[in-house]
Amino acid sequence: MKSDVIDLLEFPRRLLQDSVQIDDCPHAGNFAPADHTCRVCETRAECEWLHHNDACAGLALKPIDAAIDALVVAMLYVDARVTHAGHRRHGCKCEACAWLRKARAAHESGFI
């Protein structure tokens, strides 16, 4: 079950990584909680989520609740992006809308 959630997190992880501007980042997009620069950065939320949920974060070792919480945040993020882009989530065939439907269905069904 946890591995299914972790698999679902792959798409939002790529989406978030693409949204983080690393050109001016002193940490090359790697969140550093003790650094003031990270605390005031406009992409702090994205970097912080990635810091806790990227492939190297040991998500498989964390409790299932942590993975589900990460998925819920990811669904909110993807939902905001597709809404802002004006997608019609139910009929849109783009990768983001398809992922959102799949993630919601898994979450709502109690599958995860």
The largest β sheet comes out as: none
Stretches where pLDDT is under 50 for at least 5 consecutive residues are none
Number of domains: 1
Overall mean confidence score, pLDDT: 90
Structure notes:
The chain is an all-alpha fold and 112 residues long. The protein has one domain. It has six helices and no strands. It has helices at residues 2-8, 10-19, 36-39, 44-53, 64-84, 95-108. Helix 1 (2-8) packs parallel to helix 5 (64-84), helix 2 runs antiparallel to helix 4 (44-53) and helix 5 crosses helix 6 (95-108). The N and C termini lie close together (6 Å).
Give a nutshell description of this structure.
59% of the residues lie in helices and 0% in strands. With 112 residues, the chain is mainly α. The protein has one domain (2-108).
Properties at a glance:
mainly alpha; 112 residues; 6 helices
Fold topology:
Elements: H1 2-8, H2 10-19, H3 36-39, H4 44-53, H5 64-84, H6 95-108
